[in-house]
Amino acid sequence: METWKRTVYICAFCIFFMSLGVSQVSPILPLYFHEMGLSDTGSIAQWSGASMGITFLIVCLAAPFWGRLADRKGRKITLIRSSLGMAICSILLGFQTTPEGVFLVRTLQGLVSGFYPASVTLIASETPQNHTGWALGIIGSFSLAGSLAGPLVGGYLSDVVGIRNDFFIIGALMLISFGLTAMLVHENYVPKPLVEKQTFRNLKTHLPEFSSLVALSATSFLYAISVTAISPIMTVYIKGMLPSNTENIAFISGAVFSAMGIAQFFSSSPLGKLVDRIGPRKVLIYSMIYVGLLNIPQAYVDSVYVLGFIRFLQGFGLGGMLPALNTYLASKTPKEYTGQIFSYNQSCLSMGYFLGSFGGSIVAAQFGFTTLFWACSLTFIGAALWVALKLK
């Protein structure tokens, strides 16, 4: 097997564990705070929201620093740093006894996070250009698989061994990722001294496609907002469709969420190959229009089954977006600046996730669910037009 292909598979395997560990936190964090003595629903919600949101915010602020460091020292060291740091943070979460302690560890977790974007940077640099879409589709699929499995694994382990032991087990899995990365991931990249002197302000003079890279980062920002704006209120939206005495609402909501994720998982690799064949621009534009249009009927359905089916169809379009975006970025970025450019793009994604999770709830509360679905639809379609006009 070629070295670059082995690196893709090792990174994908490690990404699965890292993504599983990150995604399993969200559903068990409120229960963890309840174990600590919080009984008021409002307080639990506030601490849960703050502890989740602070990680996205810190990732947004820290990503450019880690990106510049990766360009100076190499990308593999960033993977090692992130996997070890995340493992330590997961273990530390298991020792916390106060909400303030959890918030502090989650802040630290945001500072050391970045295994997936670092993997994207390394894969984009090491993979032959005609296979980049396929490679990024593979690691995107494994990242999504971990995100889908995380809540299920976290909930199961919490019931069987307790929440604290769950954090210890997840930390051990992340340590396995750390070991595999350190021993088996190969990197050919040799840092260039010139990169040390570059800042965001003077990158423009060294990057012939600077305006296109800015446009792509703006597209990432709009994508992240549109994807996360609906997620926090989906359970409430589904609850309104069901009889008041319905049991297992959380399970039903999870199934609707999973429908989109399953389709996205299976479509990421084929669409990644399509990116290699026809180019990322067409895949990105048509995927965004497709996903945007499918947001509209979701505003008017009155059946959970119909909603789940539409979101399943929508997942096929989402599977092509990030591989296309990342392939586009890689094609327009010199290898010696890949770490910096991908880190700025990661900052845009993280800020979009952060604003989307809060903004979607506010829009739904003030103007209703129909307005929110239309807003997300128009944002996706607007982003597609933005790419069509700004990128050639």
TrEMBL record:
<feature type="transmembrane region" description="Helical">
    <location>
        <begin position="249"/>
        <end position="271"/>
    </location>
</feature>
<feature type="transmembrane region" description="Helical">
    <location>
        <begin position="44"/>
        <end position="66"/>
    </location>
</feature>
<feature type="transmembrane region" description="Helical">
    <location>
        <begin position="7"/>
        <end position="32"/>
    </location>
</feature>
<dbReference type="GO" id="GO:0005886">
    <property type="term" value="C:plasma membrane"/>
</dbReference>
<keyword id="KW-1133">Transmembrane helix</keyword>
<feature type="transmembrane region" description="Helical">
    <location>
        <begin position="168"/>
        <end position="189"/>
    </location>
</feature>
<feature type="transmembrane region" description="Helical">
    <location>
        <begin position="136"/>
        <end position="156"/>
    </location>
</feature>
<dbReference type="InterPro" id="IPR036259">
    <property type="entry name" value="MFS_trans_sf"/>
</dbReference>
<dbReference type="GO" id="GO:0022857">
    <property type="term" value="F:transmembrane transporter activity"/>
</dbReference>
<feature type="transmembrane region" description="Helical">
    <location>
        <begin position="78"/>
        <end position="97"/>
    </location>
</feature>
<feature type="transmembrane region" description="Helical">
    <location>
        <begin position="103"/>
        <end position="124"/>
    </location>
</feature>
<feature type="transmembrane region" description="Helical">
    <location>
        <begin position="306"/>
        <end position="329"/>
    </location>
</feature>
<keyword id="KW-0472">Membrane</keyword>
<dbReference type="InterPro" id="IPR020846">
    <property type="entry name" value="MFS_dom"/>
</dbReference>
<dbReference type="Pfam" id="PF07690">
    <property type="entry name" value="MFS_1"/>
</dbReference>
<keyword id="KW-1003">Cell membrane</keyword>
<feature type="domain" description="Major facilitator superfamily (MFS) profile">
    <location>
        <begin position="7"/>
        <end position="392"/>
    </location>
</feature>
<keyword id="KW-0813">Transport</keyword>
<feature type="transmembrane region" description="Helical">
    <location>
        <begin position="371"/>
        <end position="389"/>
    </location>
</feature>
<dbReference type="InterPro" id="IPR001958">
    <property type="entry name" value="Tet-R_TetA/multi-R_MdtG-like"/>
</dbReference>
<keyword id="KW-0812">Transmembrane</keyword>
<feature type="transmembrane region" description="Helical">
    <location>
        <begin position="210"/>
        <end position="237"/>
    </location>
</feature>
<dbReference type="InterPro" id="IPR011701">
    <property type="entry name" value="MFS"/>
</dbReference>
<feature type="transmembrane region" description="Helical">
    <location>
        <begin position="283"/>
        <end position="300"/>
    </location>
</feature>
<protein>
    <submittedName>
        <fullName>MFS transporter</fullName>
    </submittedName>
</protein>
<feature type="transmembrane region" description="Helical">
    <location>
        <begin position="341"/>
        <end position="365"/>
    </location>
</feature>
